[in-house]
Amino acid sequence: MNMKAEPSRRTTWLSAAVGTTTALGTGVFAATLFRGGVTVLEIVTTVVFVAIFGWIAFWFWVTAIGAVHVFRARRALALEYPLRSNSEPLPATAVLVPIHNEHPESVFARIQAMLESVAATGSGASFDFYVLSDTTDPDLWLREELEWTQVRSSRAGAPFLYYRRRGNKFRRKSGNVTDFCERWGGLYRYLLVLDADSVMDGKTMVELVRRMEAVPQLGILQAPAVPAMRHSLYARAQQFAASVYGPSIFAGLSYLLEGHAGFWGHNAIIRSQAFIDHCGLPGLPGRPPFGGPILSHDFVEAALMQRAGYEVRLAWDLLEGSYEQCPVSLGESARRDRRWCEGNLQHLRLCFSSTFPLKSRVHFAIGIFYYLMSALWAVYLVLFALHYSGATSPLDPQLARASLGLLVTTLVLLLAGKLLGVGLVLLDPRRRALHGGAAGLIASAAVEWVVSVLTAPMFMAAHTVSLFSVISGVSVEWVAPPRDETPSPVRDALRAHGWQSGLGAFIGAVLWVAAPGLVLWMAPVWFGLLSAVPLAALLSSRDAGLRAAANGLFLVPPETRPPSVIERALELAQARVAPERSFTHRFKTIIGDPWLNTLHVKLLESSGGKTRPRRVIEPIVNRIVKDGTAAISAKEALAVLSDPWAMRTLHAEHFDRGAHSS
To answer: Which residues contact 249 (CB under 8 A, 6 or more apart)?
Structure first.
């Protein structure tokens, strides 16, 4: 088969389907709108309509094509693991877990569960796990080291678990992985990159390696990262949507893009030498947010891999065995989108670079358009209001028909994709049962649709603000997202979404005074915004999520029939509560314990830790010797913990004082 011609033919068919659908919709819209004449305002409205409707049509056809492929493969997907068997030994593979100021006990619980799962496959000797820390909090750093030593002591034999904390935090996660590649990447044929919240079954890891072995030109193979292990109402809705609607989208993208699929930066396996040779990331000219280090590095790394002649594919059929955690609240989701918005907009200049393959540039464009669409919807609503304000009747019938047509057609296309996902689950007895049966599945889909309608205006407003924030030159610091699932009180929702509720009240009041006929037409917008605070507080509630599950709503396979790796991870996490002892106690332990102190110093030296100028570090050491570890700040503690000489000196002083006192 001609691998280059096939994706081109598929893309042509998709373009034809999207173009035809958009042309038909635009024709009806324009014919209705232009019936009373053509104005500049109407032309602009039509242009905005074309962009919005084309975007919706694109995702409808991607989902429809994917649904066909999932339906054809439904028997294979009914298996617990549609994995091939192969008794040949596997090549050396490094499993990388980059972390930055995460909850150490939870991270290492997931890692230990994955270590045990890989060992159970019989191929554990082919895998080495690496925890690559960029943590800056000194207390979390010490907890990471202590957790690492605990997991190592409880795990005898392969696979091995290594820990390295990087002193230089250059380029965040991408720099962390690059640093590993420069030091140890040549020892492994493959790199399996995870996130701090990832969980992957050992069988899936083995299968990813085997698929890479079977296709030498495959550079990156991305596994679906299925959201799981969250309990807030918002998280449950997202997990349900990903489980029911995600397979069709994954399959559609995989079929259409084939060797030019995307890379999400985690839950993916990479051919290490190709990555080292071709995927180095230069900084972009200029200052942030459009210049500086590349933030959404995964898209660019995939493009570089494809430019070098390697394929990037999506293993869409591995619907079980690869998991991640999703945001637990609307506020956290919006903060994550703000970071992604800045990263994706950086790709604007890359869209016009002929050095990248066309489909890679299409990926860049899709990521950018995801955020532009929110602004375009806002623009359309403004244009709609302007049309109405210029109408001679209480509600211009032409404008009403045009807008109603847009609304109905849009809802049909959006709902069609979701209905296809629900239909596929209904046709699969096993998956239907795992989603709570037919009644539970349909009820969950209905509630999820209501939630998505109510929250859509909130995301429209948040994305529009994020877009203009980036355009105006405001850059945000990428920090570790919170992984805990504590209920968000109303005051937190008010802090995060109060401006949206205020905006909804303002829009509703203006419409009531200036255009009463539009109040009902635009109710989904202003009411969705007005209810932002109470809705956000409700959706972030863990109790509300648990009540929904008790009533059969938003059930997903990782919960109704949890795989052993998730069960084990949750079991270990419950046993590993946050330590009650203070940072001061842990600091003293690292100083005084000969084995832990030596281990800490060796870790510093192996990762390039450098002794600071004596005039800088010695006064801090002297203060600790004189007044104890509680006498220094967190910044000073971090400096001491990062300095091999300081840690050796404190250990020696500790024993000198002990000998003197005895």
So the answer is: 59, 62, 63, 66, 417
Cis peptide before 159 (omega within 30 of 0): yes
Report pLDDT digits (tens) over 415-451.
Answer: 898 999 999 999 999 999 999 999 999 999 999 999 9
Determine which helix (DSSP H) or strand (DSSP E) holds 190, and give its type and residue range.
strand 190-193
- In single-letter form, the type of residue at position 350 comes to L
pLDDT in tens, 274-286: 999 999 888 888 8
* Per-residue model confidence as pLDDT tens digits over 342-394: 999 999 988 988 889 888 888 899 999 999 999 999 998 888 788 776 554 44
Core vs surface per residue 481-492: b (16+ CB within 10 A) or e: beeebeebeeeb
According to the model, what pLDDT value does residue 23 have? 93
Region(s) of the chain under CATH 3.90.550.10: 87-228+254-324
DSSP, residue by residue, 25-38: HHHHHHHHHGGG--
End-to-end alpha carbon distance in the chain: 81
In terms of DSSP bridges, do strands 268-271 and 218-222 run parallel, antiparallel, or are they unpaired?
antiparallel
Pairing state between β 226-227 and 127-133: unpaired
Evaluate if residue 2 carries a pLDDT over 70.
Answer: no
Helix axes 104-120, 564-575, angle to 10 degrees: 140
Rounded CA-CA distance 576/570 in Å is 10
What is the number of other CB atoms lying within 10 angstroms of the CB of residue 511?
21
* 314: CB partners within 8 A, 6+ apart: 221, 222, 224, 250, 253, 254, 257, 261, 262
Q: Which of 566, 639, 641 is nearest to 599 (CA)?
A: 641
Pick from 450, 453, 262: which is nearest to 359 by CA? 262
Residues ≥6 apart with Cβ < 8 Å to 475: 288, 289, 292, 342
pTM of the model: 0.91
Q: Taken in order 168, 172, 176, 179, is the CA torsion positive or negative?
A: negative
Q: How far apart are CA 22 and CA 249, in angstroms?
A: 20
Domain 87-228+254-324 has CATH 3.90.550.10: yes
